[in-house]
Amino acid sequence: MRTLVTGANGFLGRYVVSGLLARGHDVRALVRPTAQLEHLEWPASVEIFRADLRSTRELERAFDGIDVLVHLAAGMSAREDLMFAVTVSGTERILDAMARTSCRTLVLASSFSVYDWSAIDGTLDESSPIEPVPEIYERDGYAIAKSWQERITRRMAEAHGWDLTVLRPGFIWGRGHTYLAALGLGVGNLHVVIGPLSRIPITYVENCADLFVLAATDPRARGETFNVVDGEGKRVWTYLNAYRRGTGDRRLRIPLPYSLAFSFVRLAYATFLRGGTKLPHILVPCRFEARHKPLRYSNRRAREILGWRPPLSFAESWSRAYG
Amino acid sequence: MRAALIGAGQIAREHLACLQQLPAVELAAVCDLSPAVAEATAERFGVRSWFTDHRTMLREIQPDVVHVTTPPTSHFRLGMDSLEAGAHVIVEKPATSTLDELTVMAGRARELGRALVEDHNLLFNRAPREIRRLIRSGDFGAVIHVEVMVCLDILGPDGFADPNTPHPSLSLDGGAIADFLPHLASLAYSFVGPHKSAHAVWTKRRSSVLPYDEFRAVVNAERGTAALGFSGSSQPDGFWLRVYGERMQATANLYQTRLTLDGPRPGPSQLRPFLNGLAEGSAVIGAALDGLRSRFGSGPRNYEGLWELLAATYRALGDGSPLPVAAEQVLAVNRLVAALKPAGTTP
Question: Do A279 and B37 touch (CB under 8 A)?
Answer without folding.
Answer: no
